[in-house]
Q: What sequence folds into this?
């Protein structure tokens, strides 16, 4: 395989999930940490939209995090994260990326959206948290008995939501989700991906 290069920003949840999939799959990748205030010209030449992550492999450019995850898992998926990449996985990730991410942005940056108080945006996001809590009632992970694409695709966003007000999240009525997130944060895979270069 030719050189694989990933342009990334460590704290971006989209980049985080792409990096986790690449590391899990064992793909040798050169990671270029990007400053979002000074994006490198070579990254912008590959992907003019200017968002991370951007993967360059075999003369091909993949600039959507989920597509990067699927590409990595197509190379190697030792623990069966793809689950046949079923409709339930797709639907849950879409709900996260389309709806929950929108609510997360308003909750996290409530001062930019003064039309409603912060608590209003948090309550909107809680609809999704409640759904995840319900999914975890039967098992330790969202869709099956082990870590899968859905867990890794969603966890960085739930982490961000939890970190807006950690004290509130610690008291919130989502004990299974709190345990699920804690296991994710303590996993060797997450720790390795978040280590400073």
A:
């Amino acid at each position: 395989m030719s050189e694989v290069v990933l342009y990334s920003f460590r704290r971006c949840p989209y980049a985080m999930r792409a990096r986790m999939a690449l590391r899990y799959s064992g793909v040798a990748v050169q990671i270029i940490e990007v400053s979002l205030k000074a994006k490198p010209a070579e990254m912008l030449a590959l992907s003019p939209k200017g968002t991370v992550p951007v993967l360059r492999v075999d003369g091909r450019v993949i600039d959507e995090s989920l597509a990067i995850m699927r590409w990595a898992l197509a190379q190697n998926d030792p623990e069966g994260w793809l689950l046949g990449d079923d409709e339930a996985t797709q639907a849950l990730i879409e709900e996260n990326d389309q709806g929950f991410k929108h609510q997360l942005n308003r909750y996290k940056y409530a001062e930019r959206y003064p039309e409603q108080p912060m608590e209003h945006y948090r309550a909107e996001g809680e609809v999704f948290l409640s759904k995840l809590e319900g999914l975890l009632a039967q098992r330790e992970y969202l869709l099956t008995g082990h870590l899968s694409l859905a867990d890794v695709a969603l966890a960085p966003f739930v982490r961000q939501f939890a970190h807006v007000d950690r004290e509130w999240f610690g008291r919130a009525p989502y004990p299974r989700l709190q345990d699920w997130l804690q296991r994710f944060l303590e996993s060797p895979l997450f720790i390795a991906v978040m280590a400073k270069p």
